[in-house]
Structures are given as structure tokens and as C-alpha cells.
Amino acid sequence: MRKKTGTALAIFAAGTALILAGCSSDVPATNPSASASADAGAGTGETSEFFVQADYDNEIALRTTSATGPSDKPWEQALNPQNADTAKYKKAGPYNLCFSNAGVGNPWRQVGFKNMQAEVKLHPEIKSFQVADAESKDDKQISDITDLLGKGCDALIVSPNTTATLTPAVEQACAKVPVIVFDRGVNTKCPVTFINPIGGYAFGAAGAEFLIEKVKPGGNVLALRILPGVDVLEARWGAAKVAFDKSQLKVVGVEFTDGDAAKTKTIVNNYIQRFGNIDGIWMDAGATSVAAAEAFEDLGKPFPAIVGEDQQDFLRMWQDKKLTAVAPTYPTYQWRTPVIAALKILKGEQVPSPWKLPQPTITDANLSQYVDPSMPPLHYAMCGCSDLPGYPGDWGGK
Amino acid sequence: MTVEAPTGPAALGQSRRGRWGAGSIAPVVVILVLLLVAVGIRQPDFYDPPALLAFLKRAAPLIILAAGQYFVIVAGDFDLSVGSLVTAEVVIAARLIDGDPGATWPVVALVLGFGLLVGLVNGLVTTLLLVPSFITTLGMYLILVGAVYTWTGGSPRGALSEEFRMLGRRGIEGVPWLGEIPYAVLILLVLAGLAILAMRSDFGKVLLAVGDNPRAARLAGGRVAGVRTIAFVVSGGCAAVAAILLGGFGGVSFQVGAGLEFTAITAVVLGGVVLGGGRGSVVGAMLGALTLQTLLTLLNLLGVAGALASAVQGLIILAAVAIGGLRART
């Protein structure tokens, strides 16, 4: 009898899994017979709690704002600049600059950090540049900032690991030296300026609008996200969702890939088999866009309209295979700007605060400017780094 | 062999513990058939030969990892290092090949060698220094994660050549009726055959005896430390092969091996292999991996979010071990 109990349990467990699966399949995204509709929420799920309408409106407006500053140096440009007075920070050089970095744990941050190191070399008035790498740990970054403050910094650049947790540490630093924050923000106005490109809503909207233009009405779109709960990624999806909800496209799935190429390929493969074909792929970041496109290639299907990013592997594939593609960017050239800002502040010159950088999109029209076969596949093309000392060798190029 | 081991027959599901007893493959076969029927209902063209082969191609790395993990688990140990080993191998291969086709085969050899070496170190630390394998391989996991992170500065560099990627991505094309036979499936068949042969050999019998009762096996003259070490070497080698296939399939990524150790252990347990060793067959472990992959495919077909898939995986581990415990007491 006990033996039978065991078997029955095993079958029961499998059955339960199936039933669970059955229940959760009631979401509209999985109903192949759902008509292409323009209803809010069709296939795209609930609006995330991260969505802030005012920020969305602001970013969408900034996309069409023309930048002030030299057009060949977008890292020195600013959108709608409100200048902050910095006379009280003026002092004679040479300067000790300090930088508390959240980490270099992905190719985007690696390229960015190279940009920053090279920018420092352009300025002989910088006597020393001390860097602390927090290795993506909040607690390490908090103690890094304290340590750096004890090393005679004239100005401190911070790229916070997370927003809320790092706020008190940044406030503490503000009391001693001028602070420049970039990339992710902090919940305090005390830094002299906060530098970043337009942001996630603009990024997400650019990709979604491209698909709405290129995919025929009623076409199947698969949205691939890295993971939930990260503000910048939530903003990208939030804006895409707004655009898709207003469109005639059918969002057949919203899946999380963990940024893993093999997993992405498997997911895309399954969707192609399930729906016969997928006409558009939206992505919240480009790291796995090549894997997604390869899934179509391996099944002998035509490439869909696809959203990527400015990494060389994707740009190269786009050019070689003549993809219908677009690449919104979150430019790594923003890593040059904090050094420029720090020097302006120490010289008493005005700086934009906040300093909003332009956020270009790569399209068919300007693709050839950015493809560079001599650079490594994971290099981000929108780096503004080709005029910097050490290029291309320091970035891994040939 | 003087060791009375619940071996060969158990592997065939006909031991004195019965067709449904601990270590038998009957339950996993039933579950697999049920899942395959469910997938077939939801997606009838799943059974077209090319689609089926494509599915096997995607399942091959996990099946190979599960086979490797089986050797370690059945001897009473764990190998938690395989996930980070897969990541390390792919990252190393990309950096060394750096897009140069000429470097492909030397790097393939190096990747295999490195996998075997890591397995050997795991085995020697466990058997000679008497560190529990859970700790040894957890340590190895951390060492590999840290070393790869330090070496790469946190993100992979270089690129895999098309020749390297071919193994996990392409196949023999133009085969009538079947379409393309993926190289991954051929590699899987060869390794599965070798694994079954190994378990039928004296080595396999000693391995099962060691897992069942190490002291009895030692008293009976089994080379306990030797076979346990070889089990780790096999697991390391399988992880290397899985890395070659996964890197080929998806390309370079830092996430490629994340969580694979637990997926492999889940697969082995699902295949009826008893944690703690001594019972279960390598066929069961590989079927467990196939079942898990089928389940994940089915969940996707049903539109279940990816996050729930890991919850299901957790449920399977708990249910399989609990049921295994119940069955062992009968």
C-alpha cells in the first residue's frame, strides 16, 4: 500500500503542477484567439507601480528638445539647462578628484569607466584621480565614500549602486566637498549637479514606436525584459506598454530572460513555435538581442522587426543580415561628463543642474557611423570615445 | 565482486524493492509521458521530427549535466560547482578564441581539460582531505565565480568563433525526413551510451555500493576514494561538454551557467535517484532532465511566467525527495 501511496503522490504532484499552470494561463497574453485590440492593457499586463506619469511626460517632451552645446560633443551638451552657480567652490588647481563607482559588473559600466579614465587624462590640472569600486554592494559603497572623504578630495563623483540606500552617504559627503552624481540618482538635492541622459521612458518608447511603425497592425510582438523591479528597466517597459496599448499590435508575451542568451533563445524559439510567427521583438536592453535574432535564423524564419542596443555584436548583425532594427541607447559617453562638470565646479564656472544629456537612437540611416568591426562584440558604440587617448586599444579594440 | 549492491536490477526498475521502489525509473517515465501528451495536445507540431530534434538540442546540455551529476550523487556526494564551471568555461573560451577560427579546436581541448581538472580537484579535496563534498564544491563554486570575475573585470571579453558555436547551434543538414540532425544530439547520444556502459561496468557497481554503504564497500575491497574521485572528474567533464554546447547555442554570456547546478540536481532527483546515494539509475537521471525540460516547455506553452518556473522546480525537489523518502521506507 505504501508503495502505491508514493506513486499516487508523484502523480498528484505532477497533476498539481499542471493545474497551477492551467490557472495562470488565463492571462490575456496567452489567449491566441484574443483579437487585436487597442484596449488598455491588452497583452501587456498591469501598469507597474514604478510608473510615474509626470516623469514619463517630461522624458517624452525631452526627446524632441534640442540640446545646447557643441553638437559634435554630445557629452558636453545639455537639454533645457538650468545653470547652478558654483562660485563658492572655486579654488586653485591642481585638483584631487575622487570617484565612488557602484561597480564595473557589466560591459556597459566597463566601457563607461574606460571613457572616464581617458577623460581624466585629457586634463593636466587633475593631479590625482582616486577610484573606489563598490563591486555592486551598497554597504561597500557607503564605506568607500567615507574613506575617500578622508583622502583630500577636492570634488567627489558618485555613481550610486542604489538610490535610497546611498542617499545618506551622499548627504554626508555634500557637507565636505562638492558632489557630482551621475547615472542612477539619489533622493537629495545636495549634489551640485546630477548628470544622466533622458532616461528609461524615452528608451522604451523609442523601441516600441519603431515596432508600431514597422509591424503590420495585428502583428505579434514579444517583449523580452531582463528582470522585474529595477527602476530604469521598469521605466523602459512602462513607456513601451503605454505605446503598445495605444497600438493595433498584439503583445503575445512579456518574458524575463535574466539577460541570459541561451534562455532568451529558448523563450523566443518556444514563442515562434507557439504562435507560428513573431513579427516584432521588443527588448528592454540589447545584451541578448543577437540571441533573439538567432532563434529566428536557426528555425529558418525571416527576421522580425527587432529592438536592440548599441553593442557591436548587434550592430554588426544588423548590417550583415540587413535586419529591420532600431537601437535606442543609454550612452556610455555620460561617463565623460562628470569629470568635465567637476572641473567646471572647481573653477567656479556654472554647470547645468540637473545636467540632462541627449540620448540618440541608432537607425538604418546612421548605422554605418557606429558599426566598427575592430571593436569587441560587447563594446557600446555610443561611447563618444574615439577621440580619447588610448583608443581603441584600451577598450579592447584592434 | 563480493559487494552485494542493489545495482544492475535496480537500474532496470526490477529490484527486490519493486518496479515502483526507491531508485526506479518508472515514476519519471509516467510523468514524462503525461507531460509529453500535454505538450502534444497544446502544440501538435511539437512531434514533427525537426521540432522534436530542436527540442532535444536545447535539452542536451541539461541532460549531459544531469548524467554527470548522477555519478556524484549516486556515490553519496554533491557537485555544486557545475554551474559556475559552465560560466567559467564559456568565458575562458570566448577570451582565448577571440573570434579566431584557428583557435577553436585547441580551446575545445583546453575547455575539456579544465573541466576534468576542476573535477579532479573536487574529488581529491573530498576524498583525501575529507572535506564534505557539499562544502568542497561550494568552495569551488565561489572560487570559480571570484576568479572569473577578477579575470574579466565583471564582463566577458572576446568572442566565440562560428566553428566553436557550430557544435551547440548547427547540425548535419539535409537529412531526409529529419531535416537537420543537431551535433548536440549526436554528442548527447554518445555520452549517454558511455554513461550507461560505465554504470554496467565494475566501476558502476562499486560506485553504487559506495553510495549505499561506504564502509561495507571499503571492507569488501572497493576503491572507495578512487571511484568517488572519478565521479567528480566525470561531472567536471560533463560540465565542460555542457559549456561547449551552451556557449555554442546562445553565445557568450556571464549568466550562462547560473543556477544550473540546482537544475541538474532537480533533474537527477526527479529521475528517482536518491540523495545520499546508492539508489537510482543514470537513465533515470537523464530522463529526469528531459522531463524537467519538457515541463519548462509546457509551462511556457501554457503562458506561465518564468518566475513561477523556478517555484515549480523547487516544488519538484521537495516532492521528489519527500516521496523518495516514503518509498525508501516501504
TrEMBL record, chain A:
It comes from the Bacteria. Keywords: Signal. The keyword Signal applies. One of its GO terms (molecular function) is carbohydrate binding. Residues 1-29 form the signal peptide. Belongs to the bacterial solute-binding protein 2 family. This is Ribose transport system substrate-binding protein. It comes from Asanoa ishikariensis.
Automatic annotation (TrEMBL), chain B:
It comes from the Bacteria. The chain crosses the membrane at residues 20-41, 62-83, 103-121, 128-151, 181-199, 225-246, 252-275, 282-302, 308-326. GO terms for molecular function: transmembrane transporter activity. GO terms for cellular component: plasma membrane. The keyword Transmembrane helix applies. It is found in: Cell membrane. This is Ribose transport system permease protein. It comes from Asanoa ishikariensis.
